[in-house]
Write a structure and sequence with these properties.
The complex is a heterodimer. Chain A is an all-alpha fold. Chain A has ten helices and no strands. Helix content of chain B is about 50%, strand content about 15%. Chain B has seven helices and six strands. Chain B has a five-stranded mixed barrel. In chain B, helix 2 packs across helix 6. The chains are: A mainly alpha, B alpha+beta. The interface between A and B is medium-sized, with 28 and 24 residues.
Amino acid sequence: MIATSERCLTFSDEELLARAPQDMAYFQCLYDRYEARLLRYIHRLVWVAGEEAADILQDAFLKIWTNLHAYHPALKPSSWIYRIVHNEAISWLRKRRAYGRDQQTTWEASPEAQAMSECQPEGADQQQAIAGILALLHPNHREVLVLRFLEEMSYAEISDVLRLPEGTVATRINRAKAAFAQAAAKSNLSFTW
Amino acid sequence: MNRSEKLLQTIQERGLQPKPGWRFALSRVGGMGVFVVSVVLGALAFSVVLFAIQQTDFNVLQHLKHSRLELWLGLLPLLWIAFMAVFVGLSMVVSRRTGKGYKLTWQRLAIWSFGLSILMGTAFFISGGAARIEGVFASRVELYESIQDKKMRIWSFPEEGYFAGTIESVGDSTLFIHDFKGTRWTIDITGAFVPPLVALRIGERVKFVGKMTAPASFTADQVRPWGGQGVGWDGPGGPR
């Protein structure tokens, strides 16, 4: 049983995944290692924060736990973990959209915008505006922009997370950039990549 | 209690255990198995399509006055083309979902799946397996119209110059045959081109290109083997 976070640091992601079935403490290490960035990712992807995002992350990690043996070393552990979290977040978003399909709301009144305003730092106008534009984009466009420019993943990693060919990822990023630029222009925001 | 401790507590409370590794290994092997079986079945279907094309004289259609479109559609091995499309499609879907198959575009997957099916199917066709499959299918599936049946249909237009039957007896320059309906015909083969591979003997099924001269009488310009086109199709003396 490993007790300290310092000891967690001595293990690679692969080692933690391999040891987790025998000792849950290694799984805890994995969660602690990824928690902050995955919560941030969930927030950027589906615009939820706080306990709701933590619930999505917990559900995703329960899936990771039960499917630990599905991990194949041909994949980077981070890509595999992001894939499961991504799917969980998208699935949550779909459920919520299905629930509120008949509700017509403006962006400002939407739960996404409210969640975002709660989470954006004070005075971060530019950042908030970018986040607002991202939220207006089609989920397919938003997810590739978030993974590429905010999570700073390579095309190969994005391809593994989204289970898409790298060429499709590249095309989607280009289209997403164009969609973002168009939305930014509408909001009088100048933006260069 | 922080979130990671809460996560471990939830796992323990729900009694969750990692699913055994063999289930995932089995799923991967199963996926590969379905892929291989789909490609093989697609290949078998393709081999029968090749066999149908080889056996059916599609080029005769342009010389027939009968509704060409109707004949053409009737002669196409649609069932086998559909089989091939289904199995190749299945192999594409399965390979996309297995391992790192998602790295390949649908176009690439189509090229691989069709390519493999076409290669294996051609080999199977050359080895003569396609004819056996078709034969088994024709004898066991009642509603299925075999390639031979379709071929008989197209070679049953004596009034348009295309005719076939089984030799009953052989004269000096005359053949006596019975057609597919059992009618006895006299065929004048004086001056007809008879390729060396055509055996004019009793019981042999042959095709004729020529002219119907009277009821149950036909003058042949060409005699061809039942299987294949024979020689001289495009040259002088070819079909009108």
